[in-house]
Amino acid sequence: MKSIDDSRLRMSIAVALIGMLAMHEAVAGPWEVGGLGIDKTRKVKIEAALRDNGESKAWAWPVFGYAHPLSERTSVEVGYGYGMIEHASYRSHGGRDLDLKLKYQIATQSADRLAWLFEPKLSVPVGDEASGIGRGKYVVELPIRAGKKTGRVTYTAELRYTHVFGASSTQQLVGVGGLVEFEPTERWVVGMDVFADAPAGGNQGVHSRANLAGKWRPNAVFEVQALIGRTLSNERGPSQTSYKLVLEHKF
């Protein structure tokens, strides 16, 4: 009887934490709201992320990414890594799902036009589902962004739809967010975003969060990104604190 209870506990914790581990990771920067441009050069990155709700922790480490430009308007990126879930009575680890992303520059900014970008992402369920790291289902994210750079400040707005194939309507999400970035120098970018999503079916369950982050560019090919984020309100679960560190190299 105890082994059955333990199995149920492990499963319930894994289900609760998989959402933390599989949340959207922006490509153009550490923020959840992504950027307005494609990758102009090839890029490799390594990332470490932590989401902590006070009772459990979900780690993503290491996560590797490779970006490659295809044309003046498009670039692609592939990402894969390792994850771990920690709880007082439960700990698991395993491979994450494979992420495939496309960036398409709908329009660049001009005097009378905003910049527009479409960045669909497909998550392929190759991760360790038994441990709760892999989702076990295909997931499509469809974010579209519009924004404008004025002097040293960039404003970005994002609308996103997330569809989990074979899942209940509560996992099909519609989200909206905004990001403000400021460049005090050529080497530094700091910014803050706010993002909120809810089930597309109209069920209650809004989750809103904010992230404060920065990017440091010591030279033209290397970049360091760091983020700290916090839940503002969450009708779908406990509040979370997020941390992220990313190292990028362009070539």
TrEMBL record:
Origin, by domain of life?
A: Bacteria
Protein name in the entry: Uncharacterized protein
Origin species: Luteimonas marina
Could you read off the lineage of the organism from its UniProt record? Answer: Bacteria, Pseudomonadati, Pseudomonadota, Gammaproteobacteria, Lysobacterales
